[in-house]
Amino acid sequence: GGPTISIFLKPPGVIPLGGSTTICCSCQCENGNFVLYRNGHQLHALEQRGSRAELSISNATQEDDGAYNCHYLEGGIVLAHSETLDVMVREIHLPRPLLSVLPGQEVAAGAYVTFRCAIAHRGAGCFLYLEGQAKVLHLLSKERDDFNLSRVHKGNEGRYSCQCFTRSASFSWSAASNTLGLVVR
User: Fold this and answer.
1) What is the model's pTM?
2) What is the torsional sign of CA 124, 158, 86, 96?
3) Class of the 92-184 domain?
4) CATH class of this structure's domain 5-90
């Protein structure tokens, strides 16, 4: 095996039309470079800073939608590529949800933690995100708008946010919530 590359959005979630985000590629790599692909087509060679390379998107449009991958090359040879990151740009129609964490943002290892994503809209579902992850951490339904982590450990630390949607005739999205940092002592 070659190096492992991760790809993620900062901040995570569905991007508001006209909004901005950063696509991050990360790898414990030395002296190669990253190339970003969307829907199988090469976009850019990315500027690498340490073990990371980023592409900023501002004033996002539907054209920024797509399946993104990072490839890591040394001497023109692809050594590794990331999993696929699905990027969605949508109009925002729902109010911003409020994310809270119990018992608090700083907990002891082994504690039981509950994330709650609250939105003033009946029937909305919500996604919970952890910055640095390509995939949604958890889907919260309106019947159960909590996400519980039992026996937390250092690997659960990070910056969390949530984003909600409704499934009426078409999906309607909220902006992403506030971000909460979880620290595990």
Assistant:
1) 0.86
2) positive
3) mainly beta
4) mainly beta
